[in-house]
Prior knowledge:
Distance between the termini: 39 Å
Number of strands: 7
Largest sheet: 5 strands, mixed
Number of helices: 9
Order of helices and strands: EEHEEHEHHEEHHHHH
Strand order of the largest sheet: 5-4-3-6-7
Amino acid sequence: MAAPTTIIARPVAAGFRPPRLIVRRDGPLGGYESALGRAGFELVAGADEAGRGACAGPLVVAACILPPGRRGRIDGLDDSKLLTAPTRERLFGEVTRRALAYSVVIISPAEIDAFGLHVANLAGMRRALETLRPAAQYALTDGFPVKGLGVPSTAVWKGDATVACIAAASILAKVTRDAIMTDLHGDWPLYGFDRHKGYITATHSAALAEHGPCPHHRRRYVNVRRALGQAEVAVLGDLVGENGEVECLTPGTAGEIA
């Protein structure tokens, strides 16, 4: 049996005493929202992104507030990466129909190149969460914390598979991004954006090597720079992440240069 997870709200004002909530990670989706609801947080938003591991196309960030109770329970809701495209399309309609509020933010490759993937991702999550109406009282983010939200928040490891509102956000982001990449395929058919959506597959790598990058490729990524002939070897300083650890470029990843 999985160990329980403790949620501790981050304080947003002096004297604020965060509630201590216990949620079982092996429980059904919606357990986090239910626990927070019992603590007085009725409007709980989840945020997630799609396209972080791609070297082409935008990063899409979404935020979503599902209604409490049975109204917010959507059959089949799960991490968007684990679902088939038809199932994601169906759930996209369910989420947009049932959500109390949702927001989708599109971050262009130019923004990613200018600010870096992680910084752009954090900014996108803030924008998506801040534009929700009604506004969230509590935010749950997938994987890593996001500062400066103005409301209590918790980062949930693998939240897209364990938290209903994060799973809903992941579906909004994934379906939106897939549609964008399919449209891009009409203008740039050589890269197969309708099949692999800009991720580093063998087919995409071969097309990138043969044709070079198009305007929708992210120039910060080492494989794109290599295709441009601008950087055969990245210096160690370029590969140091925000936590001081050296990032490893492994097969199947884009390898962004920070």
